Hints:
Elements: H1 3-14, E1 19-22, H2 25-32, E2 51-55, E3 60-65, H3 69-72, E4 79-83, H4 94-109, E5 115-117, H5 139-147, H6 151-174, H7 181-196, E6 202-208, H8 210-215, E7 230-239, E8 242-243, E9 247-252, H9 259-276, H10 283-296, E10 306-308, E11 315-319, E12 332-335, E13 338-341, E14 345-348, E15 351-355, E16 360-362, E17 371-372
Parallel strand pairs: 1-5, 3-4, 9-17
Antiparallel strand pairs: 1-2, 2-3, 6-7, 7-8, 7-9, 10-11, 10-12, 12-15, 13-14, 15-16
Amino acid sequence: MDERLQRTAAAVAEAGADWLVLTAPDAVAYATGHVVPIEAGPSPFAGGPTLALVSRDGTAGLVAANVEAAAAARAWVDQTVIYEGYGFEQPAPYPANYQAAVAELVRRLGVRGRIAADPVTFPAWLAELLPADPRLDATMPLARARATKTAAELVALRRSAEAAAVGQAAFVRALRPGRTELAVFAELRCAIEEFAGERVPITGDFVSGVARTAAFTGWPNARVIEAGDPVMADLAPRIAGYWGDSCQVTVVGTPRLGHDRLYQASRGALDLAMSLIRPGLRIDRFDAEIRAHVAKAGYAYPHHSGHSIGTAVHEFPRLVPYETSAFQEDMVVLVEPGAYDPAIGGVRSEYMLRVTATGCEPLAPFDQVMAVAG
Length: 374
């Protein structure tokens, strides 16, 4: 049994349930190894979300539409039920087929007893087949189980971190005045996908100019990059179900007066973070030190200091002022302190870090370049 499935089963027991229904794509991927497609959104040929059932003893099953059949065959589950979604010779009643498939999986696995379900993604119309008890909540037990990574996950996350680093190098190479944000992004995306050997969903931010980088979030558009512009590339690619993440801000040509102070505040906070992180350090105390470093330079950042990552791009724990849990060995976290000034722009510096027994290490460090020739 894969260790991720074992951890999921333990979370079911911790929640006081006999069975757990998983319907979020990241949770299904974690527990079963089945990577649900996400780039085009919910499949138009599915009657409901891809669904997994996991018992407290590790028995597991999967329901998926026929468009996911090849991938579902590689899942580490005891039973898989594939239903007709995509078809063309006659109409396919997707919802009815989905409901029948769920009923068949329930029958095959002998599901009975206390059932827990994701309160956010569980379809209410399945309640008759899977009468989940709202008092049973496996959300935090499963989040804690996923917070530290297995050996297989560390391999997957390192590859995704490497993909992000490839994208960052391509970003710097492609950056020059007169190009649109979309043109630069297309080149770095191509580099990531050639590295991965497949299409890759990517999230994050890609923005240029003073106003857009000071606002610190957004997706590329047709804006033409001009000499002196800061350009933010926050790149998070998903490969084989696991996410990478990264961020740097690079100026095209000569930086504006004061940009170097923004850069040093952000990058210095990242360097400080890497010197501080170790097992046992409380996250709220860590967050306070990083924010204090940026504040000492006269800046602040209105977002989290970072987050964990895995089959979801943001996982527990987040690096925020209210989080009282501590770093643990084999957590993988993103640290992303920023510094923003509406007159100059914004800088955010981010590395993907594995917590080790004595500190931390970047999974795939890349050169963060403050400026390139214009």
